[in-house]
């Protein structure tokens, strides 16, 4: 079974995003970048499938400018066999990404595609579901457990109010939630080895996808600040204030 | 402008998010229809009929929609989407699962988790875990949108409108339902509760979360948790309030032993009143709290339960 793992280069999750002074976007100049945390979980799951003998090949793919090759090398160091960089400088929406990935799925024909459920920059939570639609495959989103049973992927999904399990005949699409696994760290020997693993570059405009924007970013602002309130001295004072001042309890 | 809203329901009962999404829809256009897709969901459709602003309720009651699988439901929505300028669903796990599939089938770029409607094309949505608010304008002829329900007030009630039955059957071979494990709780759901009390790493272990019960009982509150408490294994993930968990905006939010990481604040900072109880006076949670109490939670909780 071949597994394709799309990954995204995003702001490091420990870094607080700052809005540009002209409100045109978030300022990413000289900001530490990293693999999107949900994508790390996707890579880990694919590697575990390979270690368990269910997967034979793990291919990592990233779409963007040259810099995202850094994250592809990380994926290779973690255990992916091969990487594909779809190169473009265009600002992409989830639909564009899903269309480019659908082209790659057509070429590579993986039985399973594992993606992060969302990226921590745009917070869209769309690409996996869109890829499911475009490739006419079943989708198991927000996975907290993935089991390959014969010709099916059995996916336990984190849903509001509990867990739902679905069975998807392969080929299928899975998106990861936080509890699916705990990603490993790349070891130094593996980082060295990753430098010799194949990394193919495909120019995005050779894939025949219209990448024209469909959503315009009008402006980006700081969220409304909440003013700090008062420090109360006792439980009694707290309850009194909640009753008489805030009037949220009776 | 005509808007199709996808209703949110569970076990045949309409969920309160729907009336909030309708209120977002009313800001966009005057014609608002609501699709109720499921199996044995006529009761939910009747509830939708009484939400103010709804013109027509479309009821697709068929075994193929029983578990609201994305593949079947998306096909159904695409079949009836013609004629609507906007398709809206709650940014719940159900809406998030289904709507991007709809958008791709319609070849439309989706706008996720809007928190405000500027006009029929322009919306506000949080990005970077709520650290920035983007204003985005859709250039699509038909807009596919998920709505952060907690950012909108529920629409009022009206005399019930007509419920129109659809005969669609969209059984699919791409996915099948295996089972569901529902978290059993007597308490209100986090996303619907007017009062929430949440525990963080300061609770020290899962057993200590029982200390929140007494206060929650007195206030009719739901119980939540920070990601730190979930990651530490104290409580299950579906209790998580935060950017990677549930986004809530109750009238009263009580944060107990929660430091106030950005990721947690992103999930609760739109609450009307925030109370923070933490023994560390430097905890960032105090910067967003209306009322802070610097004290040991193990002393405070029993006292608070008594005082209420």
TrEMBL record, chain A:
It comes from the Bacteria. The keyword Transport applies. Keywords: Electron transport, Transport. SUPFAM superfamilies: Adenine nucleotide alpha hydrolases-like. GO terms for molecular function: electron transfer activity. Residues 23-211 form the Electron transfer flavoprotein alpha/beta-subunit N-terminal domain. GO terms for biological process: carboxylic acid catabolic process. The keyword Transport applies. Its cofactor is AMP. CDD domains: ETF_beta. It holds the Pfam family ETF. Heterodimer of an alpha and a beta subunit. The electron transfer flavoprotein serves as a specific electron acceptor for other dehydrogenases. It transfers the electrons to the main respiratory chain via ETF-ubiquinone oxidoreductase (ETF dehydrogenase). Belongs to the ETF beta-subunit/FixA family. This is Electron transfer flavoprotein subunit beta.
TrEMBL record, chain B:
Keywords: Electron transport, FAD, Flavoprotein, Transport. It comes from Pseudoalteromonas luteoviolacea. Binds 1 FAD per dimer. Residues 3-181 form the Electron transfer flavoprotein alpha/beta-subunit N-terminal domain. GO terms for biological process: fatty acid beta-oxidation using acyl-CoA dehydrogenase. GO terms for molecular function: electron transfer activity; flavin adenine dinucleotide binding. FAD binds at residues 201, 226-227, 240-244, 257-264, 278. The electron transfer flavoprotein serves as a specific electron acceptor for other dehydrogenases. It transfers the electrons to the main respiratory chain via ETF-ubiquinone oxidoreductase (ETF dehydrogenase). SMART domains: ETF. PROSITE patterns: ETF_ALPHA. The keyword Flavoprotein applies. Its cofactor is FAD. InterPro entries: DHS-like_NAD/FAD-binding_dom (IPR029035), ETF_a/b_N (IPR014730), ETF_a/FixB (IPR001308), ETF_alpha_N (IPR033947), ETF_asu_C (IPR014731), ETF_asu_C_CS (IPR018206), Rossmann-like_a/b/a_fold (IPR014729). Belongs to the ETF alpha-subunit/FixB family. The keyword Flavoprotein applies. This is Electron transfer flavoprotein subunit alpha.
